[in-house]
Amino acid sequence: MPTVLGLEGSANKVGAGVVRDGRVLSNRRATYVTPPGHGFAPGPVSRHHREKLLGLVEAALGDAGLRPADIDGIAFTKGPGMGAPLAVVAAVARTLAQLWGRPLVAVNHCVGHIEMGRLLGAARDPLVLYVSGGNTQVIAFSRRRYRIFGETLDIAVGNCLDRVARLLQISNDPSPGYNVEQMAKRGTRLLELPYVVKGMDVSFSGLLSHVEAVTPSLLASGAATAEDVCLSVQETAFAMLVEVTERGMALSRAKELLLVGGVGCNGRLQAMLAVMCASRGARLCASDERFCVDNGAMIAQAGWEMLRCGHSTEIHQSGITQRYRTDEVEVTWRD
Ligand code: MG
Fold this sequence. Notes:
This protein has helices at residues 42-64, 83-100, 109-121, 157-167, 176-184, 205-221, 226-252, 267-280, 289-292, 296-308, and strands at 3-8, 13-20, 23-31, 73-79, 104-108, 127-131, 136-142, 145-151, 197-198, 201-202, 256-260, 283-285. The protein is α/β, with parallel strands linked by helices and 335 residues long. The longest helix has 27 residues, at 226-252. The model has no long low-confidence stretch (mean pLDDT 97). Bound molecules: magnesium ion.
């Protein structure tokens, strides 16, 4: 019964979680929150993670009722993500592995989201929509890889929402996307915004720069409210995602759709995807913020699968990488 500790810190969340044979024993997380109007930079985020991570590991072991000797392996996020925060987490993982004499497992962050989603949604062979602040991908499993069927050509959908929040000076607590979602519920006017789908790919940078250009005058003249802007950005961006996801389901003949990543918490996106899935006789597997948002348990779960198949990472090969595509990983634990 391998018990795996997973450490995550590729963006502004840092987490430690413990998984044992398909059960999440603990999942602790801390989030670096910036003031309204500001994003987060690698330096301050990495200092935040450095301050929090050891306490989170201790708490995760405590919640699980385990001692270090009960841990069979240490999984950590190798990438993709922000360099300095990834490096902090990798250093802690390497240290614990050597201190406790346990194998180290380097995990692809996107694969972590997928494996956690598969576990929670009990999904066998889903099409995956992975939407977050750093990633936007439509993924399907084929010939031992999580293959990318469609993706953003520029910024991630979550980055687009975060930057709309920044433009409107919306709070980043608990997350900018959550607050944009709440404001969108009070919007009444749908503004026409750039809708960019190219085959299976989407683009959000034109939508964002258009919103940045027109919003000040719309608000000043009273032609639209900040709530209307939130509503319109969500409706447009999510419609683009639903379109490519539906095409992906048709191509892959998937009967399950797995929604993962921080934007996957959004109730409006879930509702739109649920309508699409229902019309195709498919099942939507969504999750809540405990597991959608970056966390340590998802890294532990992917690490558990890898460890089970005999994978581990030598210390001298345990470097991080900011660019690490989902389809680079050979998925030996599925057939
Ligand atoms: Mg993520």
